[in-house]
Amino acid sequence: MTSKLNQVSIGFCGAAASLLVILALWGTTPAGLRPVGVTLWFLLLLLALSADIAVLLDVVKRLFGPKKPQGRSFKPSLRQGLLLGIWLTIIVGLSSLRQLSLRDTILTLLLFAIIEFYLRLTT
User: Fold this and answer.
1) pTM higher than 0.85 for the full model?
2) Is the sign of the CA dihedral 11, 14, 19, 20 positive or negative?
3) In this structure, what DSSP letter does residue 31 have?
4) Cα 100 off chain centre by
5) Among the four 20, 24, 79, 119, which has the fewest Cβ within 10 Å?
6) Exposed, middle or buried, 13 (CB in 10 Å: 0-12/13-18/19+)?
7) Which residues contact 118 (CB under 8 A, 6 or more apart)?
8) pLDDT-derived band at 106, boundaries 50, 70, 90
């Protein structure tokens, strides 16, 4: 029961953060947000991406994967959602600074793949 409640609350937080990110994109500019606002925007983007990806991964795993107990299936999805959310936020941040290259994308993806591999082995 509590796992389902956690999944719903994480999904709700992700949807709310996604809505705030879209409203900020639509209604303001980075110059209007100032540095603190841009930092908060990136934190909201991180929250939105991580939560939305985690819930999406959990739904896909429940539909197509082997059946697991309720509490055990969401934790890996949450971890993977957080890692993918961090990676995508880094990519968006580097792109907004015009510092993104293909090499950086591949290196950060490789780093997060190694982290995921290590976490799968240890848990």
Assistant:
1) yes
2) positive
3) H
4) 19
5) 119
6) middle
7) none
8) very high
